[in-house]
């Protein structure tokens, strides 16, 4: 770099550099434009050089940048771990503090009881009495001597199946029982609660429900065969309930044990040992008496006392409460695998009976998950979790039934929510797309979920046909009940058939079901359109003058030729004359166009069940035109008009009817004998123009 560039760089890098003053001085010292341009080029070259150096430094230190980013990421994770450790230590310190406070509180209470035992007992009973006065139906609770209040508070009860709030309750924990009272909506004086239930402390178990939003601060009380779930106001109150319930249950158990020990049982009589080797002991085969169990039974007792087996019922309750269905079924599979190797004893039966109650609860929750009352969003995949667990529980038939009911409700809801906006064709496209796409997704999900249960596939086929009826009801209501034209109906039926063909990619062909459900409406549409054509033909026949058709312009003649060529009448040009005249009557031309259009639309709608309907409709339409020509020939006296009528009759017999027969055979695949017989029976006969006989 030159010396000028070095000075410029030092000037720009100096901390006291001010751009405005620099530009002002530069303008004063410059002789003209040229100096400023040169200076600008120097600054620009300096900027380019700086950018190039910066880029080189970035490339040079690229690896250092990556390593620095990694170090920052490591530092971030370590800071997160440190924060987590501090949070855990804080919670541990709080729990230790609360434990120490509760211990001091218990010691103080015990000292008070030791110092003033009678006064303390009376105070507890007075407190319980004053509280129970607020409970409707709770006066008899104090009849038990020695009963006093330990703890009480407000709770919210939740439904065990769907975890929705049921009611607000007030719980009274006494030294030997637990009272549940519901809040009265209409309070009467001092009475605030109503008696709901009373449970002995040794008749239920308390299970902690792990926090899993929105289920927080909950615990479950298990009373065979039922259970109840309550929610505390916060985690602190929940912890107090769990600790005090556990401690009260232990105190009652200890007290009962001491009471039993005070009553010394009489020593059992010594059994006489028999020396007869041939004498059998009647009690050797008993399974109910644990004292008579052999070494193998003793081993079973030890095996059934494993920690995970003892905690299995509670673990299942926790899994069901937290909606961990997979974990619950895994535990059941583990238990079944373990018990499979053991003989069936009374203890095994008791364990299975306890587990069966949890299986019933789990099944009810899974059934609720698949019920149509639940949200139907998410498509078929949203049901996979519940379906797979029901199948693992050995209830594939119920899973299949519930899955199909859920999908039927989803399809019905989607069809109902579809609004008619704009053209009906757009609605039909949306309807077909929603229905057949849902059917295809359901079929794929069904095949995935029930791959090992081939017996359920017949149920899916039956369900597909029933849902097809739902689709046809909505489809026919828009297509046929709205009195649309036959061409429009044919186009929409074609759209439905094309969408139905999508199901063949999974081996499901419902085309026959679609056609059989539409046959009644299509038959009615064909007959209705046939009646319209006959009425229009009769109306034109009543105004027939038997004159040549004048289209006024060559363009109109060319358009008519194209229309006839499109209908299959390729020899129509021989009936056109010079200029704009057509050597046929307007009635015959209009009839030909209308009948060929009816034939084309009918072939679009055709399937075997409509064969005779379409044939008879064509025959009736043709007979109307033929009978009119025959009647006109019999009644007409003018030789020129009679010759013109014969020309129109020849056009119908020799040109139009063969085209109809050929096109029908191409569309259906077999000849139409009825149309051939009709053409033969209406063969025109060349006769004397003076005669009134025209056709056989």
From TrEMBL:
Residues 251-263 have a biased composition (Basic and acidic residues). Keywords: Cell projection, Cytoplasm, Exocytosis, Protein transport, Transport. CDD domains: PH_RalBD_exo84 (cd01226). One of its GO terms (cellular component) is growth cone. Gene3D superfamilies: Exo84p, C-terminal helical domain, Exo84p, N-terminal helical domain, Pleckstrin-homology domain (PH domain)/Phosphotyrosine-binding domain (PTB). It is found in: Cell projection, Growth cone; Cytoplasm, Perinuclear region. Its main location: other. Residues 279-294 have a biased composition (Acidic residues). GO terms for biological process: exocytosis; Golgi to plasma membrane transport; protein transport. SMART domains: PH. It comes from the Eukaryota. Residues 251-297, 675-696 are annotated as: Disordered. Transmembrane segments: none annotated. Residues 148-250 form the PH domain. Belongs to the EXO84 family. PANTHER family: EXOCYST COMPLEX COMPONENT 8. Component of the exocyst complex involved in the docking of exocytic vesicles with fusion sites on the plasma membrane. This is Exocyst complex component 8. It comes from Scophthalmus maximus. The lineage of its organism: Eukaryota, Metazoa, Chordata, Craniata, Vertebrata.
